[in-house]
Amino acid sequence: MKRVWILLAALAVAAIVAPFTGPFIILLLAQILVLGIIAMSVDLLLGYTGLPSLGQAAYLGVGAYLTAILATKYGFGLGWDFWLVVLMGMAAGAATAAFFGLFAIRASGVYFLMITLALGMCVWGLAYRWNSLTGGDNGINMRGRPKFGIELANDVTFFYVVLGFFIASFFALHVLVNSPFGKSLVGIRERELRMRILGYNTWLHKYIAFVIAGAFGGLAGVLWAHLNGIVSPVDVLLPASVDVLLMVVLGGPGTLVGGLIGATAVVFLREYLATVVQWWQYVLGAVYVLTILYLPGGIMGLFKGGKA
Amino acid sequence: MKRFALLFAGAVAVGPAVAQELKIGFLAPMTGIFAQIGKDMENGFQMYIDEQKGNFAGAKVTFIVEDEEGKPPVGVRKAEKLARQDQVQLMVGGLLASTGYAIAPVSTRLKTVYVLSVAAADDLTQRDLKQYPYIVRTSWSSSQPHHPLGKWACDNGFKTVVSVAADYAFGHEVLGGFQKAFEDCGGRVVQKIWPPLGTKDFGPYIPTIKRDADAIFTVMVGPMALQFPKQLQEAGIKKPVIGGGTSYDEFVLPSMGDEVLGHVSALQYSAAIDTPRNREFVRKYREKYGKVPSYYSESNYTTAQMIHEVMKQTKGKWPGPEKFIQMITQLKLDTPRGPVRFDDMRNPIQNIYIKKVEKKKMHGYDKDELWNSVIQTYPEVSQFFTYKKEEFLKQPVYNRDFPPCKHCN
Predict the structure, then answer these.
(1) Domain-embedded: residue A78
(2) Is residue A269 part of a domain?
(3) Is the pLDDT of residue A116 over 80?
(4) Cβ contacts (< 8 Å) between B85 and chain A: which residues?
(5) Residues of chain B that touch chain A, judged by Cβ-Cβ distance less than 8 Å
(6) Quick check: is A272 in a domain?
(7) Nearest to A136 among B66, B81, B167 (CB)
(8) CATH: 3.30.70.270, 3.40.50.2300, 3.20.20.210, 3.40.50.720. Which one for B2-119+294-335?
């Protein structure tokens, strides 16, 4: 519980400081929060259920493409109907996960990794080749952010909206992982066989967790589309999924907060290191390797010394 | 009155050495499969800055290079960074046409000049121009060299053509331009094959090429350009090959073998243009970077020159985005590629060279090398070629389905 207060304090500080950070940093902060949402969804799978997903960008992609297509082709979602699009994005993410889960949840460990990777690439394939709908390799350029009383085109306003979504997502997931359902997910992570013997339907538990993660992936996608103003197959590509997974590993799996910390580290390293040196990817790689070798609990592990 | 004020401001500026700064943000891929092209782009621009010792008519040039990775979303992020964080006056570059389409809205949103020194996306200087008051193109629009090429192919006896083109905006537009001019003159495109951008293995595509076509038209970008002619030769296909400009650009030419001899392509630049201006440019570039300049190098070198010319007129004072756009489009320059001026939609009017790959000695170098010999010049070609602007703009931008493939099947 203490952790939650620390996070809230940190977010409050961010919220107060944000408008004064300058026009570029505020974009990065919004980006971190969106990535934080999808990282938490991965954490639900990896940290709590023990399912390493390498295809989470697929749900982000579904949400983002849905948003972009509705906005550019039908002019939908640029006013109050933005909230509808948020719900639709979550539903689309959940529906995709519900479909993919039928295949993925049968497997575990490395096989789960491979299947989610393959399924994620299916979504990429669609984004890349379904030209009439997705614009293919060009992606979709959006014309502007929604406006409903407040103007999301203002980056500070947009940041606060994203912050709101992040906090809501955090609490939803926090409640979830501390519920009996969440505890049984942890049980499955620790020893699935025992849970099954105890009479739990472990398949269904994992399936539901997978679908919920998909929904939050979809939510992140809706925000992602408006954040960048462009949706491109690159957003759905494997490296995007890997990045999110690594953010969780870096921050500390099984903590929810870890995702946000990982996202912060990665985004700032990427944006600032890249301007200083051209071989920044090696530095990022070294950070990952060192984390996995010496900090199995991620950055959060530094503070706690053990898993939640 | 305004001009007077400007002159006055300029005069004040030159007086004692007032330190003025011109911040130029440069977007090019520095990692990934297009990293080498990015290097060519940067080298061209850097060479001009070095020639001027970093001083554009009194303004000290700060040149900030950002890696856009050849990915449109990354390009957008980096453009945001350049405009917001570094507060550059100008953004230059962007490799892929899709990246150009993605960055242009950023320039409008942040009221920052965006000079398209490579990204050839047609519609930016055509149907979409009104949305983008702060962009200007110094290179070419995708279809611009390929209208003349279509005419040339038709005039030189080709009747039917199969296309193999990279499946993204640039590929669509290059082929579109070629097809339009080629078919308007009586030729027929009988099949369109669309490998994805970055394809390395053309095994699945080559066998489907219709055997009875007169020629193959290719649009290759980056490493694709190397693979395709090799694999075509291995498959034993000896049809004449006509290519979009980037298929045989000097960027890939030195790595190619005899399999490309005789292949024809079109562009606004060839390192083999035999003018004193270009010979000098090639010599200096080669001395400095150890390779022959590609159009990526020339285009960015020339872009730097254009920016310098504007700064000369303002005596080193940044004129503001609106005025800059207005001034740069008034320029008439002699460049390595030949004379360049602008049309009223901020796209260059320039010579288009039809080029054939030949092995020979050129510019006084003593080894036999592959060069893009100019076999025909279409002078002063605009992005509308011989078509009327109004009618041209009524048709949709060239895309996967336009012009339709009437003669396929």
Answers:
(1) yes
(2) no
(3) yes
(4) 22-25
(5) 30-31, 64, 66-67, 71-74, 76-77, 80-81, 84-85, 97-98, 101-102, 105-106, 109, 167-169, 196-197, 400
(6) no
(7) B167
(8) 3.40.50.2300
What residue spans in chain B does CATH classification 3.40.50.2300 cover? 2-119+294-335, 146-273+351-394
Asked whether residue B113 carries a pLDDT value surpassing 70, the answer given is yes
Say yes or no: A283 contacts chain B, CB-CB below 8 A: no
pLDDT at res. A110: 85
Among B87, B98, B101, B199, the strongest candidate for a mutation testing the A interface, having the largest count of A CBs within 10 A, is B98
Is beta strand B264-267 parallel, antiparallel or unpaired with respect to B348-360? antiparallel
What residues in A contact B168, CB-CB < 8 Å? 136-138
The CATH architecture of the domain made up of B146-273+351-394 is 3-Layer(aba) Sandwich (3.40)
Domain encompassing residue A175: 28-237
Contact check, Cβ <8 Å, B169/A281:
no
Q: Closest CB to A138: pick one of B64, B85, B168.
A: B168
- A243 close contact with B: CB closer than 8 A: no
3-state secondary structure of B58: coil
Q: Helices in B194-341 by DSSP H: which ranges?
A: 224-234, 276-289, 295-313, 321-328
Q: Give the pTM.
A: 0.85
Tokens of B186: 């009586």
> Is residue A17 one of the residues assigned to a domain?
no
**Chain A, window 135-194: residues with a beta carbon less than 8 angstroms from a chain B beta carbon:** 136-139, 141, 143
Alpha-carbon Rg of chain A, whole angstroms? 19
- Mapping DSSP to helix (H, G, I), strand (E, B) and coil, where does residue B222 land? coil
Whether residue B174 contacts residue B142, with contact meaning beta carbons closer than 8 Å, is answered with yes
| Average pLDDT rounded to a whole number, residues B81-86 | 90
Q: How far apart are CA B304 and CA B147, in angstroms?
A: 27
Q: Contact B197/A137, CB-based, under 8 Å? A: yes
* Helices vs. strands in chain A: H and E counts, helices first: 15, 4
Q: What pLDDT, in 10s, does the model give residues A136-145?
A: 878 888 888 8
Residue B349: count other Cβ atoms within 10 Å of its Cβ: 17
State the Cα–Cα distance between residues B364 and B283, nearest whole angstrom: 9
Measured CA to CA, the distance from residue B36 to residue B196 in angstroms comes to: 20
Separation of alpha carbons A98 and A58, rounded Å: 13
- Round to whole Å and give the CA distance between A264 and A261: 5
> Can the peptide bond before residue B229 be classed as cis, meaning omega within 30 degrees of 0?
no
Q: Which of A141, A158, A270 to mutate to test the interface with B (most CBs of B within 10 A)?
A: A141
Q: How far apart are CA B220 and CA B196, in angstroms?
A: 10
Q: pLDDT of B168-186, one tens digit each?
A: 889 999 999 999 999 999 9
Query: How many angstroms from the chain centroid is the CA of residue B20?
Result: 31
Tally of domains in chain A? 1
As for the ipTM of the complex, it is 0.83
- Tokens describing residue A301: 């592990």
